[in-house]
């Protein structure tokens, strides 16, 4: 499946050069309800869930992707207000976990089963639905400084690099970062569509030097 990762200019180019993506820490992501989409009025339930979340976070993280690169909201929020990049990857369908968006929190059974825990990992509040998120879970093993990374491989193939329509990244700058991947990746600049609220491909080469 082709999925997309939005990122700012600095770290986008750096990650392309280093052939990697940063793995998100479940304890520090920007959604306070991560892994807490269930009703937790009982303090014992909250404590147990917090401990489970901490245990999971000590071993695994995840990478976030979207089904589409065309959302102007995602460009604004995650690609430095349209000045960054969107990276398109081919990832085996079986490795991706599609997020389910709900309007209300649900009850977790007294004795959770595997499907219940899976639901915890794949459910977010409906107001996040614009992200059209798919996740790739990754074992925490490649650490540099304070962060863990997942390196590009056969299950994380970089196939597209889309430059934000307000970005000053040049073709030469991007091709230098891509190096040997230049021939394998489609690259183009985005622009606002004329008839819809979408970002689309800029076909006029004059707007990307």
Low-confidence stretches: none
Distance between the termini: 30 Å
- Name the helicity range: 10-25%
Our count of helices gives 5
How many domains make up the coordinates? 1
Mean pLDDT: 96
The fraction of residues assigned to DSSP E strands is 25-35%
> What is the strand arrangement across the widest sheet?
1-4-11-12-13
Series of secondary-structure elements, N-terminal to C-terminal: EHEHEHEEEHEEEEEHEE
Helix and strand composition category: alpha+beta
Main sheet record: 5 strands, mixed
How would the global form be characterised?
globular
Total strand segments: 13
Summarize the structure.
The protein is an alpha+beta fold. It is built from five helices and 13 strands. It has one domain.
